[in-house]
Amino acid sequence: MKLMKIGIDKIGFATSDLYLDMVDLANARHEDPNKYLIGIGQSKMAVIRPTQDVVTMAAAAAKKIICQEDKEKISYVIFATESGVDNSKSAAIYLADLLGLKLNIRTIEVKQACYGATAALQLAKGYVALNPESKVLVIGADNARYGVKTPGEPTQGGGAIAMIIGSDPKILELENETSAYAKNIMDFWRPLGHSKALVDGKYSSGVYLDFLKNVWDEQLKRTNYQLQDYGALLFHLPYTKMGLKGLRQILQDATAEDSTRLIREFEYARQFNCEVGNLYTGSLYLSFLSLLVNSTSIKSGDRIGFFSYGSGAQAEFFTGILQPDYQKGLAGVDYWAILNKRQSVSVIEYEDLFERHVFDIENIELDYQADKSAFLLAGIHNYKRKYLSR
């Protein structure tokens, strides 16, 4: 009996059309630019307009990959975010409406810091196993905000990843063995009523590496896979230097051949993240997309390892096998062209846009004429968000 393959059939990405150059930010904050360019591994940071939020960015990401056949088969939308727009109503139901999905579907929102999209992915896998003719739309979308002139400022960013999960996937077959680890700690949190996150940065970095060691060691015991069995190892990237620290930890006793290969693939896998900054729930999967687009050496049959981490804290390590038609799952989108068309903003413009972020407002009309995006937040009336699509 042939076992059913379940995994990522398509993947898409969207972010703001604006960015801030990290050299400009460093100069404005009287820092050495290399502190940002090398020390945290970031070159640009997405700047989110007030007329954009996780719903509009998710819709833009999904639109890049969804065809009519997908619309007919999608029966579940799982939206992972820690930048939700309502404490009761899921972002997924706004998204389904914007995309014109059928009405006889399920729509939910999930949350566990930056781990949320992995939770959604695993939920989707289980659903498809029971409903093999159905597809699930999984979203990881966030607006990473720490505040102007805060220690976390250079690790901000934003955007959305959309993935279609189904049987016989074009991109990646998910393997069954995973390892997870959870512990109640306070390394990062955003209390109710706060639009900006609170974080103990140094502590959180240490927890990230501790959790990585735990799930990596557990995965080795469960699978007996060794470094030579991986074509690439991917990491949650709150900033890209953090993933490099994680990889170096794993490679401490590696052969020269394994180190060379896995570091090379990591460099491909962090290129998009360097351009955008932190996506929270979508960061790991943006790195996966970056690998698929930029690597010249990965190939069908390669095993890809994924380390997912969400502060608070939850971690999971899982694996998947790259499929023969993985390039078809990218839907022919030229992401470098999209990133290169973005407009640079000054530090003053970034600070103004940051402070005009819409949060906990009863009534507001937004001027969206300058925003040429396909999906927009036009305003809020009696706390009801009004979205537009073009």
From TrEMBL:
- Superkingdom of this entry's organism? Bacteria
Q: Where is the active site?
A: 82 (proton donor/acceptor), 114 (acyl-thioester intermediate), 236 (proton donor/acceptor)
Say which species the protein is native to: Liquorilactobacillus mali KCTC 3596 = DSM 20444
Cross-referenced NCBIfam families: HMG-CoA-S_prok
- Chloroplast as a keyword? no
**SUPFAM superfamilies, per database record:** Thiolase-like (SSF53901)
**What Gene3D superfamilies does its record include?**
3.40.47.10
Instruction: Enumerate the InterPro entries for this protein.
Output: HMG_CoA_synt_C_dom, HMG_CoA_synth_N, HMG_CoA_synthase_prok, Thiolase-like
Alphabetized CDD domains for the sequence? init_cond_enzymes (cd00827)
Positions in coiled-coil regions = none
Positions bound to (3S)-3-hydroxy-3-methylglutaryl-CoA = 32, 146, 245, 278
User: How is this protein named in the record?
Assistant: Hydroxymethylglutaryl-CoA synthase
Q: Which Pfam families match?
A: HMG_CoA_synt_C, HMG_CoA_synt_N
Q: Which UniProt keywords apply?
A: Transferase
Provide any one GO MF term from the record.
Answer: hydroxymethylglutaryl-CoA synthase activity
Q: Where is the Hydroxymethylglutaryl-coenzyme A synthase C-terminal domain?
A: 271-356
All copies of domain Hydroxymethylglutaryl-coenzyme A synthase N-terminal, residue ranges: 6-168
Q: Which GO terms describe its biological process?
A: acetyl-CoA metabolic process
Q: Family, per the entry?
A: Belongs to the thiolase-like superfamily. HMG-CoA synthase family.
